[in-house]
């Protein structure tokens, strides 16, 4: 892939995550991920986390502001910022560095580095509240 194609792939990743998606044309079937807040994940777990994140952020507001993208060989590094209004009224602001490994034109590995206080103290509790709400609304709930 050319450097500009690698940049486009990274931008497409952030755009897809902003929609709460991780389309198969962007990632390899065996894609793996690692984040400071969640550790190792396979594709299914990472994609599920993307959907949960999108579910607690105000519609249309899950946008990464890209400061820089650097590509060399099979690696892409992106420095990005986030400032998301959550549905519960809080804001989740952070700085991230994403390190991608690319294979055959798709993302095979992603690692995310950020201030872990934001997912721990703001995003995590919002996701837990959403999951509890969904659980309470599930048919067959015996509570």
Structure commentary:
Strand 5 (about 90-105) and strand 6 form a beta hairpin. Helix content is about 35%, strand content about 40%. The model has no long low-confidence stretch (mean pLDDT about 90). The protein is of the alpha+beta class. It has one domain (about 5-135): Nuclear Transport Factor 2, Chain: A, CATH 3.10.450.50. Strands 2-1-6-5-4-3 form a 6-stranded mixed beta sheet. The protein has helices at about 5-20, 45-55, 115-135; strands at about 25-35, 40, 65-70, 75-85, 90-105, 105-115. It has 3 helices and 6 strands; from the N terminus they run αββαββββα.
Break the fold down into its secondary structure elements and pairings.
Elements: H1 3-18, E1 27-35, E2 39-42, H2 43-56, E3 64-72, E4 75-85, E5 91-103, E6 106-114, H3 117-137
Parallel strand pairs: 1-6
Antiparallel strand pairs: 1-2, 3-4, 4-5, 5-6
From the alpha carbons, calculate the radius of gyration and give it in angstroms.
16 Å
Helix content: 25-40%
CATH architecture: Roll
User: Biggest sheet, open or closed, and with what strands and sense?
Assistant: 6 strands, mixed
CATH class: Alpha Beta
- Please give the count of helices: 3
Give, in order, the helices and strands. Answer: HEEHEEEEH
Q: What coarse outline follows from CA principal-axis ratios?
A: globular
Give a short summary of the structure.
It is built from 3 helices and 6 strands, in the order αββαββββα. With 143 residues, the chain is an alpha+beta fold. It has a single domain, classed as Roll (Nuclear Transport Factor 2, Chain: A), CATH 3.10.450.
């Amino acid at each position: 892939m050319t450097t500009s194609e690698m940049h486009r792939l990274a931008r497409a990743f952030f755009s897809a995550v902003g929609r709460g998606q991780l389309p198969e044309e962007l990632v390899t079937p065996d894609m793996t991920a690692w984040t400071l807040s969640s550790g190792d994940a396979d594709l299914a777990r990472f994609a599920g986390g993307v959907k949960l994140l999108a579910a607690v952020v105000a519609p249309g507001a899950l946008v990464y502001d890209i400061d820089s993208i650097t590509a060399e060989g099979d690696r892409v590094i992106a420095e990005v910022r986030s400032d998301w209004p959550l549905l519960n009224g809080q804001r989740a602001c952070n700085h991230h560095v994403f390190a991608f490994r690319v294979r055959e034109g798709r993302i095979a590995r992603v690692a995310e580095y950020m201030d872990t206080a934001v997912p721990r103290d703001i995003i995590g509790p919002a996701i837990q509240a959403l999951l509890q709400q969904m659980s309470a609304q599930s048919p067959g709930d015996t509570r």
